[in-house]
Amino acid sequence: MKKTLKEYWILLTVVPVVLVIDQVTKALVRANIPFGTVWMPWEWLRPVLKFVYWHNTGAAFGLFQEGGLIFGIMAVIVSIFIIVYYPQVPKDEKLMRVALSMQMAGALGNLIDRIAFGPVTDFISVSSFAVFNIADSSITVGTALLILAIWQAERKEQKAKVLQAEEAAEPTESDRKPA
Known about the structure:
It is a single chain. By secondary structure, this protein is mainly alpha-helical. 63% of the residues lie in helices and 9% in strands. The protein has 5 helices and 3 strands. It has helices spanning 2-32, 68-85, 94-117, 134-169, 173-176; strands spanning 38-39, 49-56, 120-126. α1 (2-32) crosses α3 (94-117), α2 runs antiparallel to α3 (94-117) and α3 (94-117) packs antiparallel against α4 (134-169). The N and C termini lie far apart (63 Å).
């Protein structure tokens, strides 16, 4: 048990924290903002940021409406994949572990909505961009971090190959002695 907790500590920290923030903010929106209306206490900020209670039965950015069942199944599959794959990620690849944790948290946050309410509750509106929520943000940031982590791992691997090639090319003591 202790080994499992040590192996999964980032996942076991990030997922619950993001889920709580996601579900609490969605509950506050459902309880305090009438569906379809906008709330922003600072009018000067309204053109850039506002809170809008909205439902989404599809994916991010309102794509594939009425695809809730498919996205619910995908959230379960992605979560299982992350749980299985997670221990294979090297322990020093913390950025990749955080990225996977954020993606899982976002998938589960929207899955909870789909199971409990049908549509996903969206409420953050930035300028004329699509309305989204904390779970959507977690998936997006997690994906960006995953791309960054993969890029860093590839650079690290390339540097190691270059270093290895340079070491192989250096002359040995026997090569330095005159004949």
